[in-house]
Structures are given as structure tokens and as C-alpha cells.
């Protein structure tokens, strides 16, 4: 397999701040790679190390096998879509898209053709004469995408590009971005703090915390088998079971995760544990029950149409043993 981007023990420090701390990763050519993590975890700095706006303090970045320190930013086959889109307000949509080609000295007719093709690709035909201010947020996002793609990058970097959109539009754009990536075959590297976005679009997800990658895997790996408590907490709503809870289940003393939707209610004494119902939250498709088992509070999602016991009732909880995943650390 050939790699679009490789990080070999890369660090980027700003004084005392270890923005990126000993990160190694490989991004397969043609894949959709998400960097997921809370604010300040080092994702944007990693993108900037790929685009060349930042240089590593230690380690090596390679782009299609070439050492990045030999490639100035403008010679890297890479382009970035920023969260705020960074469109030129005084230029038409068409000229915004064609801008990169003008800088490269392409003639006007071929620039115009290329820009119109890109606008068709992002479903904005007929919008070329408008100014950015005359577009909706979602349309501006597409212009930013067209402008980045017109230069035919081999790697597209996207820094929270859907952050400014409302939920419905975000979801529609997630599907579109994924489809566009597959049809173009370009490598996409996507930064987000939204776990749903990372899980729904990416082939591979790197979860960041404190400048380090704490887990790297497929969306299913990350969701079903979080390796640490941090990942279990950050990615969705897995129950985190402490060692004393696990030892009462005859698991060795270790931390484990168990997703709320994997737990069912049963009669007291009939499941793996009994607990006391302390609360119920209606979430639309499910009711999320809070059940206190010893010192541990568990969430259990039950179908919204199923009967909910009264608060304070003793209930049994049951799950398939395969749903419980041991974690390496706490
Ligand atoms: P966000 O989601 O908020 O953009 P992030 O995960 O992308 O966060 P980075 O922007 O990479 O995080 O920042 C990582 C850490 O490095 C933060 O603590 C940040 O304050 C620090 N940092 C980033 N750039 C600089 C800089 N130029 N000078 C000093 N500190 C910086």
C-alpha cells in the first residue's frame, strides 16, 4: 500500500506546549482519514505540518514518500479548506474558484472552464456570477471546496469545514463530502471534534488527546472497542465500568466499556446485575435509563415504546458478554 502522508515520531512544541507530541501515523492513498479530538488536542497543528505552514520540532513528515522538509508549501500536492472558508468577498464565486489557477498563470478561458466544471461538481452551476455574500452558509462551503479542488490536489485537508452549518445541512454535506471523496479518489484528511462526523465519514479515525494519538482504527473499532477511558468517554456514550465493578462480574480487575444500547432490562435476579432506577431521559427513539449498581451509575437505552419501571424500582440488567470490552488503561 502506498501512503499519501506519513508521520514518523513527529513533535511540534511551542515553548512549553507540546501541541503535537511524538505522533506516528500513515494515511493510505485514496482514503478518508479523520483526526478527532477535543479543542487544543493538536489536530490543526497536524494539518499545518502536512500543508507546510508549520515545521516539526522533531521527527519526519513524508508526503507520497518525499521528505516534507524538502518541499515548500507551494510545491506540496496539498490544499486546505478552512472552517471560515476564507473566500474573497469582492470576487465573484467563479473568480474565487479560479483564483488558484490565475496565480499559476493559466489563461482566462481555461480558468473559466475549470471553475465552471468545479461548480458543477459541487452542485453550484449557475451561481458563478454571485458574490459570496449572496450565498447561504452551505453554498459558501461548497465554493470553498470547489476552490480547493480546482488545483487538483492529491491530498485535501479539511479543518472543521462543516462547523458553521446547522445540523441538517451538516448531515447532508457529510454524505456529499464522502461521495465526492470516493468519486474523485483523492485522499481527504479531515479535522473535527464531532464524533458523529468522524464515524460517519472516515475510513480511519485517529483520536487525539493532549498532542498524542490515543487510538487509531476504523470507526467501528473506535466506537465498539474504545481502548481507553478517554476514548470511551469522548466517542459517544459508552458506560465506563471501573475495576471493582468488573471484578464483581468475575472479570479480572480491569476497566471495561459497555454501550448503553447493548444493555436490556430484565426482572431482578435474572440478569448479570441488579440495580436501582434513578432516572429516565426521553431521547426520541429510545428512553435512556440511569441505573445505580453499587457505586456505578449505568446508562441503558431501551426502545421508546417499551414500558419504563417506576423511579426507585429494582431492575435486572442483562447484556451479551461480547458487548463488554476490556480497556487497556483507566
Ligand atoms: P481546535 O479544535 O480548538 O482547533 P486543535 O486540536 O486543532 O484545537 P491545535 O490548534 O493544534 O489544537 O493546538 C494544540 C495546542 O497547541 C493548543 O494548546 C494551542 O494553544 C497550542 N498552539 C497551537 N498553535 C500555537 C502557536 N502558534 N503558538 C503557541 N501555541 C500554539
UniProtKB/TrEMBL annotation:
Domain of life of the native organism: Bacteria
Nucleotide-binding as UniProt keyword: yes
Domain called ABC transporter: residue spans: 5-235
One annotated Gene Ontology cellular component of this protein: ATP-binding cassette (ABC) transporter complex
GO molecular function: ATP binding; ATP hydrolysis activity; transmembrane transporter activity
GO biological process per UniProt: quaternary ammonium group transport
Stored InterPro entries: AAA+_ATPase, ABC_SmlMolc_Importer, ABC_transporter-like_ATP-bd, ABC_transporter-like_CS, Mo/tungstate-bd_C_term_dom, P-loop_NTPase, Transp-assoc_OB_typ2
Keyword set includes Membrane: no
One Pfam assignment: TOBE_2
Keyword terms, alphabetized: ATP-binding, Nucleotide-binding, Transport
SMART domains: AAA
Protein's UniProt name: ABC transporter ATP-binding protein
Lineage of the species this protein comes from: Bacteria, Pseudomonadati, Pseudomonadota, Alphaproteobacteria, Rhodobacterales
